[in-house]
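Give me the fold.
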Amino acid sequence: MSKITFFLISFFLLLCLEAQSSLKERMKVAKNPFSTPEILKKLAHDPSRSIRYLVALNPRTPPSTLRTLAKDSWEYIRMGVAQNPNASAKILQILSKDTYLHVRSFVALHSKSPPLLLTKMAQDLHQDVRSSVAENPSTPHTVLIDLGKDSAWYVRLSVARNKNTPRKSLDLLAKDKDWLVRSRVAQNPLAPTDLLQYLGKDSYLKVRLEVAKNQRTPIDTLQALAKDESELVREKATETLSQVEERIKKEDSQKNG
């Protein structure tokens, strides 16, 4: 988009804001990705909570305005700030202590939350927050290992599906008492092949089904699952086996070509 086009759109939005004071018009401007930082700053002080919420979510809202909204009395606005990609580490640090657990959960999921902050949030009393920390790819390995032993199965489940979870933790989670946790290990796109072989013999159908879906699963395991007692597992293993063999054939063709 040219600078002229962007200027014209921004100017039009400003005219809408000045000429129309209806809630509907202000909502359009507040959520528009072309609204300028100046317009959004003005709307951040709007008496309507809905308007301020939309400003908090808008990716064009600058950090200075987000800092103001991070102090808003309505928790949903603070939650919007915690989801905004422009939220700075300082803002996230403030919101990490919010009394509203969903605000803290979004902070724990945020890509800009620094490892040190995530380490502290891993001690949160609420399992939803700890689960969000366990999902964040920036969470340190040592923290993921600790969360992999969490008393809440939902937290362990999040560790199991994190692509950065260390092998030590995946080994433990592959033997978890909860089949849902084991199934998430089988879903992990970076799950070690020997763990997939192990889980391919799991007593729970849905765990074996996830192994059958994973294209990292060794061919011999897929062949064994293609003979599984469950028709669903057999069908999925056969389908994945065909896809893997086709991929290998293409890779060999490219090498020889």
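The mean pLDDT is 91.
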